What we know:
Layout: H1 3-13, H2 17-20, H3 36-42, H4 47-52, H5 57-66, H6 79-84, E1 94-99, H7 108-115, H8 117-130, E2 135-140, H9 145-160, E3 176-181, H10 191-198, E4 222-226, H11 227-231, H12 233-239, H13 241-247, E5 255-262, E6 268-273, H14 278-284, E7 294-298, E8 307-308, H15 318-323, E9 332-337, H16 342-356, H17 362-380, H18 385-396, H19 406-420, H20 422-431, H21 435-440, H22 446-453
Parallel strand pairs: 1-2, 1-4, 2-3, 5-9
Antiparallel strand pairs: 5-6, 7-8, 7-9
Helix pairs in contact: 7-9, 12-13, 16-17, 16-19, 17-18, 17-19, 18-19, 19-20
Amino acid sequence: MGEEVKRVKRIKAEGKVVMDYSILTKFIYEKDSHTIDFYREKSSGYKALSKVLTMNPETIIDEVKKSNLRGRGGAGFPTGIKWSLRSKDNRPKYLVCNGDEGEPGTFKDRLLLSRLPHNLIEGMIIAAYALSTHIGYVYLRGEFAKEYRVLEAAIKEAYAARFLGKDILGSSFSFDLYLYRGAGAYICGEETGLLNSLEGKSGRPRIKPPYPAQFGVFGMPTCVNNVETFAVVPWIIREGAEAFANIGTEKSGGSRLFSVSGHITHPGVYELPLTVTLRELIDKCGGVRDGKKLKAVIPGGASSAILTHQEIDVAMDFDSLVKAGTMAGSGAVIVLDETVCIVEAASIILKFFEHESCGQCSQCREGSHWLARIFHRIERGEGTTSDLNLIPEICSNMAGQTICAFADAVTGPALSAIKKFKKEFEEHVFLKGCPFKINNGPNPNGEKELSNVF
Ligand SMILES: Cc1cc2nc3c(=O)[nH]c(=O)nc-3n(C[C@H](O)[C@H](O)[C@H](O)COP(=O)(O)O)c2cc1C
Ligand code: SF4
């Protein structure tokens, strides 16, 4: 039995598993955690790679399936199933890591990239071997300058140690890994927009089907996974699928990284098992800042539906959050305290989406613009009661009608805001202004404070 399995069993026996388990973050803040020497000495780095090179690719995919690992990029698709859908023809195949991390509130991938680049590299080599792929790309958002430099150096180290390149560790398997920088557009995180961008085209999503598994980058079969998804694979191979599956829920294995921000005492990246509830997560981060009351939480990045303070006894796994009418998304938890005007918060989110729509679909291009204008005018005190009815109507013409899921993402915060905080919207209309500003006097720092949150 591996050391990590024993550790999980011990922690479970002590009844502490909800809070104290870490797979990826155990050494993340230690000096030199980004170097190959540290990774090999402290984290059993590249041992999983040596193990897989003697395994049948099918067995590796089965192991990932059994682990119940679900993609950490947003949709939570089961990784083992994605890998098993690979094309088996003779065309060249590609592996792509999605390091765009554009979802507002999300900052966990950049931590992995700058502190644990070798976890990602090893995970990608294992995936490449399982999928019979010989070329991989890491697509990084343009703003990640430091992460680019760290990863570039780590890739050089991995080549020098013969973990990358021709005939890896004396096997007949070869894999080359390249870095690619985007230009900083949110929509380039959507996997087919990303693939177009990788080809040097405008980063606009493609109509699906065909899916990337059949027609990906350069028209060839391609598997796209998130940074965290790849980074956790070496642990699964080393410690076993069962150990990983045991940490999470029945359908979502493992722990995940949560980026916690907003009005929280200790913002940061937290690694917790997927069984953790939102309430426990907030407590773990020191609770709401300055002893204020909790008003609402955006549990999975700006595209997820808002939860009220009464809805936080929900487990943070993919299925439980869907059941609660929202989604786990990118794992970005944004905490809003009692001082927040939800109309203003939603208006800022919608302004972001209006700006980032790629414009291919009229429902999304016009709808996100229209919603942003309506929310803004309600917030200014210039909205009408008919605006309140218009919001759900516009949303119903956007969700599920477009090339990509961006339009659905816009409707999440818009609909939940008006549904759950209708009274606040009505007050803006009847008072012809923001009740928070009228009752408390204009808050000179209000806009600045909110722009720190989003
Ligand atoms: C508008 C939009 C933006 C997205 N942005 C990201 C992103 O920044 N990073 C990411 O990994 N996935 C993002 N995704 C999800 C990807 O399309 C894709 O599902 C994911 O990279 C697959 O990896 P996974 O299976 O490991 O989660 C986005 C999706 C949409 C619709
Ligand atoms: S839904 Fe929006 S972002 Fe997605 S392709 Fe259509 S216009 Fe572009």
